[in-house]
Amino acid sequence: xxxxxxxxxxxxxxxxxxxxxxxxxxxxxxxxxxxxxxxxxxxxxxxxxxxxxxxxxxxxxxxxxxxxxxxxxxxxxxxxxxxxxxxxxxxxxxxxxxxxxxxxxxxxxxxxxxxxxxxxxxxxxxxxxxxxxxxxxxxxxxxxxxxxxxxxxxxxxxxxxxxxxxxxxxxxxxxxxxxxxxxxxxxxxxxxxxxxxxxxxxxxxxxxxxxxxxxxxxxxxxxxxxxxxxxxxxxxxxxxxxxxxxxxxxxxxxxxxxxxxxxxxxxxxxxxxxxxxxxxxxxxxxxxxxxxxxxxxxxxxxxxxxxxxxxxxxxxxxxxxxxxxxxxxxxxxxxxxxxxxxxxxxxxxxxxxxxxxxxxxxxxxxxx
Length: 368
Fold this sequence. Notes:
single chain; mainly alpha; Arc Repressor Mutant, subunit A; two-stranded antiparallel sheet; 14 helices; 6 strands; globular
């Protein structure tokens, strides 16, 4: 069996080849500056909307990577309430979602604070408020006391993808990690984010939730790199898109002797891709903010507000009456009335297809 990186002496003395990562690192830093500049030029409400959208995507996709699909409107409402953002169509959120949002906002809004054992335990307890992960009881708010294997494959044909550090070494390894995290001042925070993510995943200190906490740690360091709690792109969203490559590179580099160049290259490229996607996203944010300003006094029900937000946030496929009814949990007749009302108000228009294939899009041309 191949040796894991943590089985080597002084395994956390990571090395990387500067020549290999420097160009990409420079591009990432340049793009960060460009995005921050673009966002500063936005009005206050558009900037709020951009932060709300990016954080919502981050929470949703970080959970989706773990196979958990959260309700968009509950996540968005929870974040908006906690940030004091006045937004249409707020709905109550479950205890589970409140916990996930609490962790993410603690990481991104209080990014300047040290990351301590107690803070991590708080995040973990917030992720699993019932002490269960699905149907399985887990140890919450403390380091794991059992062995940890990451397996994949069908039942009976499981393949061990990773075997984590022995539980009796977790506390020692985490103390070393946190000492480095809070006291290493010479590394650029973007590089530090890449190293911290890898290091934390290798230790795998908790019974469950390690991936989500690793991504929260990453977001915290990226907020430090930008010296801002305002988030305008989602690293988790990009990791979800590149999930296969993410696991492939982790699997490969976990068997290295300490050179993590390949991981850092992937991490920086993923971060660059996340920021590239944001440039398109920024345009829709500006359009969305302009729309709600224009329609702040238009009479709209909660279903209509929800669907309009979805259309701006990247609705997949064509919007048809049946989809409207399904998403808003209403009847086809009610859905059609909602749509016709929006057409009369000049908000929606019907596309060229008619009859049973009738579909609709925003009057401003946003593709649906």
